[in-house]
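ASSEMBLY PREDICTION REQUEST
Request ID: AP-0331
Submitted by: J.K., bench scientist
Number of chains: two
Total residues: 239
Priority: normal
Notes: Please return the full assembly, not individual chains.
Input sequences:
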Amino acid sequence: QVQLQESGPGLVKPSQTLSLTCTVSGGSISSPSYYWTWIRQHPGKDLEWIGYIYNSGNTYYNPSLRSRVTISADTSKNQFSLKLSSVTAADTAVYYCAREPRGRDSLGYYNNWYFDLWGRGTLVTVSS
Amino acid sequence: QSALTQPASVSGSPGQSITISCTGTSTDIGNYNFVSWYQQHPGKVPKLMIFEVSNRPSGVSNRFSGSKSGNTASLTISGLQAEDEADYYCSSYAGSSSHVVFGGGTKLTVL
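STATUS: Completed
Returned structure:
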């Protein structure tokens, strides 16, 4: 049974970089069958898609966050990570790692744009 | 402000059916069949209930069903049970300008 678990600091100072890691157990992040994703939920409960990584190195980001986001993977540890730079109070949220199944047809792989497995989430507060 | 519009709350009695709407535009719900619904109990993780407008993942009760008409998607829960009380979020693909967008969530109360 595949499980996802987020880890990282719960408090980040304004203007600094938020760094989180998602450890995947019971499955491999090298699998071509999934996009490994970050989603956050703001205190008002709004959900926001951040981006994903697949094939251990290809990434795709939310255009509104693209200038500040980096998602990377460490296949030796079966982990993928999120870095969000120049944070402000607006980046305070519960951060989830999640899995999106990749579809496949005769033309190749494609997005299905739904998330079938989520980590438990980790609250990150941006405050001095 | 969320890209997709959901009612803040809905309620129903046990055994009844309720429908939660999710209104978008011709650039998201109206243009793609990538609508999904998530259930979130307080303090818990979102759980996928419906994907691709009307498909249920394995293990999700057939009391949950999804549909779409134009720019509006709907989640219907029949035979309401106390355990259905939760927040429900819709989501849709919105093209390369936004990718995935979510609704603001609907709180379902089982009376």
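REVIEWER COMMENTS: The CA atoms of residues 31 and 44 of chain A lie 34 Å apart.
SIGN-OFF: pending second reviewer
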